[in-house]
Amino acid sequence: MISEDEVLQTAKSIAAIQGADGGVPWPEGHVDAWNHVECLMAMAVAGLTDEVKRGYEWLQTHQRADGSWAAKILNGEATEANGESNHAAYVAVGVWHDFLITGEVADARWDMVKRALDYVVGLQTERGEIVWERDKDGKASGYALLTGCSSIHQGLRCGVLLAERLDDPQPHWELAADKLGHVLRTTPEAFADKSRFSMDWYYPVLGGAVRGRQAVELIDREWNTFVVRDLGIRCVSDQPWVTGAETCELVLALDAIGDTGRAKALFNDMQHLRHEDGSYWTGWQFANHKHFPHERSGYTAAAVILAADALLEITPAAGIFRDLGKAHQHA
Questions:
Q1: Is the pLDDT of residue 135 over 80?
Q2: Which of 43, 71, 190, 202 could form a disulfide with 129 if both were Cys (CB 3.0 to 4.6 A apart)?
Q3: Rg (CA), the chain
Q4: Whole-prediction pTM value?
Q5: If you write DSSP's letter for every residue of 57-84 in order, what string do you get?
């Protein structure tokens, strides 16, 4: 296992790419709200409070009137104006995570979460899935994504927990989460087929919709498709390419269902992607024996830190994936 000092070094590698405006970009330079929040959560684990504060200020600055964020923001300007539902929902996960560590939620952050989750709930179909975006003209997409909806399920559950703690109930979020969780467990045809992506395999477990025996069966069903011995997990089933972020998310999913042995083994397997400065290569193409893409990404470092927290219990937020909505889980 990596040490807490190494976790701090990795968090500092994220802080090093944070912009002057507080945004944490992709290697290509743009910021999206989901990966930005993941990076804020990671820096919060390491106690980089000033950087986290600036990151939430970035979110408040760039939230739009409808509660969403532009899908890609570069130098403060939207380069892709569509508003993705999973981006908006993940802000609630970040704010709940920060609350678990600090015990505080500023009014402005809670207002941001309320507007974001109301945007998300406004994209729910009658059956229960939540379509993935509104385009730049405000038109809703015609389809939903399994990975995105699994992440949204977590966002709604975290929003409900925040609402309870702040004595500001939002029952429509709980209803939306219940409907969404049911569809995630029972109705695979509700979602566009992206099954070649490993995220579509484990995300229903990671996002808390599938737990208990169903989760164990789901993980075991595709284990041999995606897991590569000693390296981590494939990003897609048909390419010789393992990625660090997906591997660490699977670590979190395994930890959430009590499979700590395989979680720790996978976490250790992916450490070959660690750079000497504490950052992480995005992936490894194991047929060509090359890093691919040739970049070190903040979101990969962030996933490593969140997995390390789950396994090492560094912060009071270590169980944020494990403890998700226990009262609502279906064995």
A1: yes
A2: 190
A3: 18
A4: 0.97
A5: HHHHHH--TTS---SEEETTEEEE--EE
